[in-house]
Amino acid sequence: MTPPELALRLPVIGVVRASHHELETTPIQAGLNRAEHGTIEIAEPYRDGLDGLGSFDYAWLLSWLHRPRDPDGPAPLRQVPFLLRRRQRRMGVFATRSPRRVNPIGLSLIQLLEVTSHAVVFAGVDLMDGTPVIDLKPYVTRFDRPPGKPRCGWYDEITITDGTTPGQLAQP
Amino acid sequence: MTPPELALRLPVIGVVRASHHELETTPIQAGLNRAEHGTIEIAEPYRDGLDGLGSFDYAWLLSWLHRPRDPDGPAPLRQVPFLLRRRQRRMGVFATRSPRRVNPIGLSLIQLLEVTSHAVVFAGVDLMDGTPVIDLKPYVTRFDRPPGKPRCGWYDEITITDGTTPGQLAQP
Q1: Does B163 reach chain A within 8 Å, measured CB to CB?
Q2: CATH annotation of A10-66+104-141
């Protein structure tokens, strides 16, 4: 039996403006690239939704990862994450933060620098210029911080460097 | 100018099984309801994607909040969050975790109890039975935990009780 699909029209609430235009040179995670700033331009009909966001230090940016597309169809369910390129180890996609997903929805923890009437300036860039934004949610410590030191699977076994890009990880 | 929409077909990777069937009696956040357990039944074509997830303690469950639907059209951009019902204070939707959003995508931090070949058993239920799951991502402390004590806007001004439901918050 073919599993169901949701046929949807998702409004694009805004667009990311950043300096990156190629996946291989775009840092892999917002939290690893706080030195860089970006902007979300909020589309006119959705600007009232920003009311109150300026009182938060962090937010979740949900984006539609329009690039890369897998040219040969759906993203593989087992794939080599950027951070395991040198070891060439494959993982299930739901155990990775890979942008090549069944549903390519990005989840970026951005630091809010300024919320204006029509834009959000943030620190922590892991998206390419032009990426469509589909939601913004405030970071709430009570909801979003697990207690203690949670096990983080294969990420616990590797060294992660600030500013890392896929291109750097491809080098031997 | 009308902003763009993304016309998409989102595969449903799985379905939430839980004890809740009405919004008003469903706890509002996973982190406030760790005592309750639920299950995600993963659809057959996507099960290989679970490989490695069992070594993580927490994961982000992205869901399509198929209920409630706003009967009169799109969700309002300013609305009274559940936790402000008694004060009747409105907030911009992007400053809330309300399920009534421009794009009703849920973000739940679930605690992983067991990952089998075809299902994920978790602690922390804030979804109704039958909710479609559109993504699972591992919780990675390095990416997902901001440093220090971030400001959390209006959430910092209120008392939040474990197990809270919208129905309880409606009572005077």
Answers
A1: no
A2: 2.40.30.70
Rg over alpha carbons for chain A, rounded to the nearest Å, is 17
Query: Does B49 contact A92 at a Cβ distance shorter than 8 Å?
Result: yes
Q: What is the pLDDT of residue B71?
A: 67
The Cα–Cα gap between B92 and A54 comes to: 11
Q: What pTM did the predictor assign?
A: 0.95
Domain ranges of chain B: 9-66+104-140, 69-98
Scored b (16 or more CB within 10 A) or e, B56-83 reads bbbbbbbbbbeeeeeeeeebbbebbbbb
Size of chain A, expressed as the number of residues it contains = 172
- Is residue A49 within 8 angstroms of chain B, CB to CB? yes
Q: According to the CATH classification, is domain B9-66+104-140 in 2.40.30.70?
A: yes
**Is-contact B7 A9, C-beta < 8 A?**
yes
Strands (E), chain A: 5-11, 14-17, 37-42, 58-64, 78-79, 91-92, 105-115, 119-123, 132-138
| C-alpha to C-alpha distance for A67 and A21, rounded to whole angstroms | 10
B6: contact with A, CB 8 A cutoff: yes
Take residue A56 and report the two structure tokens written for it. 């938060």
CA A157 – CA A95 distance, rounded (Å): 14
What is the tens place of the pLDDT at every residue in B3-35? 789 998 999 999 999 999 999 899 999 999 999
Q: Does B61 have pLDDT greater than 90?
A: yes
